[in-house]
Design goal:
Beta-Lactamase; 12 helices; PAC; 5-stranded antiparallel sheet; 5-stranded mixed sheet; elongated; PAS-assoc_C; FMN; 3 domains; disordered N terminus
Length: 344
């Protein structure tokens, strides 16, 4: 490649004086041909002017060669440029140090871009400072992604706080209504469902901004209160993530299974245990949860299948295009819950 991108004043300037002939040519070619936006400033001239800006620099800023060369780099700054970033740049120049700083710059047309500026000194073979080198990288998209991610996290925290308050208020209303109407047991049953939903959401809201949530965290949150001694629940699953909207259905379904086990199943008997396994189906299109009870008393399946909890589970799953298959073994209930992996 011929060195035809640098301005005449730079080609005929002092690179040959500052570097040996061969190294000077290679240096000039590297500066000119790289796709990274690059400029060189003369630290020995008044106001440290730009003496070279390659094609990528001109394309990034929108300025022509004649509008760049001879000016200090500060002409890219504007009203919103952070002065702390400018101070870091100034200090690096004074101390001949290397610095990487993100600074808001302005193009010729007035539009802004976030510039990841890599600034550093260049020395000749004698160790003498000859240039300051600046490479520019437009990181506006990266900054926007960071801002969106931070905003999403802040919104998730606020949502978590509001939902906790909402569950607390609803729970309080249910308790008061139950006492006034003399239906405390019914109110307690409703509150148990409300609390199960709250536990499912509480551990997952911080992940909601990503659009998917590790289902295992919700399962553990819903079921852990039923295993106070840590001996009656065995959880086995992988890192399956599901859409945020799936949490409410899975949380309530597991709560109903747990409540049923506490009243009639394995957890109603001394030494009874529940194993819960989850993972994706072989085709990857469904979440499959196995609920396996052992050590429970013999029960009448018809009595349970006609109960309110069973109706709630069936209704929830049908609404979300899921299903449940119950098998009553001598040792307890084995239920297989299937739910579409992409359900919304």
């Amino acid at each position: 490649m011929r060195f035809d991108d640098a301005p005449e004043r730079f080609r005929a300037g002092n690179t040959s004086d500052q570097f040996s002939g061969a190294s000077g040519v290679l240096f000039e070619q590297a500066m000119a041909q790289t796709r990274m936006a690059i400029c060189l400033c003369d630290p020995h001239a008044e106001d440290m002017p730009i003496v070279f800006a390659n094609r990528a620099f001109r394309r990034l800023t929108g300025y022509s060669e004649d509008e760049i060369v001879g000016r200090n780099c500060r002409f890219l700054q504007g009203p919103e440029t952070d002065q702390e970033s400018v101070a870091r740049i100034r200090k690096a120049l004074e101390t001949e140090d290397v610095v990487v700083v993100e600074v808001l710059n302005y193009r010729k047309n007035g539009t802004t871009f976030w510039n990841a500026l890599h600034l550093g000194p260049i020395y000749n073979d004698k160790g003498e400072l000859v240039y300051f080198f600046g490479s520019q990288w437009d990181v506006s998209d990266v900054r926007a992604s960071r801002a969106e991610e931070q905003h999403a996290k802040e919104m998730a925290r606020e949502l978590s706080h509001r939902m906790k308050n909402m569950f607390a208020v609803i729970s309080g209303i249910v308790n008061v209504t139950g006492r006034v109407r003399g239906i405390q047991s019914e109110a307690a049953e409703i509150n148990a469902r409300i609390q199960a939903l709250g536990r499912a959401y509480e551990t997952t809201l911080d992940e909601a901004s990503s659009g998917s949530i590790a289902i295992g965290e919700a399962i553990r949150a819903v079921l852990s209160p039923y295993d106070q001694d840590g001996q009656r629940l065995d959880l086995r699953g992988n890192g399956v993530s599901m859409p945020f909207t799936t949490i409410s259905v899975i949380g309530l379904v597991l709560h109903e299974l747990a409540a049923n086990s506490t009243k009639y199943g394995a957890w109603a008997a001394e030494g009874g245990k529940v194993e819960v396994k989850w993972g994706l189906s072989d085709d990857g299109e469904s979440l499959v949860i196995d609920w396996i009870e052992t050590g429970g008393p013999r029960v009448d399946p018809s009595a349970i299948e006609d109960g309110t909890g069973t109706a709630i589970v069936d209704r929830l799953l049908s609404t979300g295009r899921g299903s449940i298959n119950r098998t009553w073994n001598e040792s307890g209930l084995n239920a297989v819950v299937t739910f579409p992996a992409g359900a919304n």
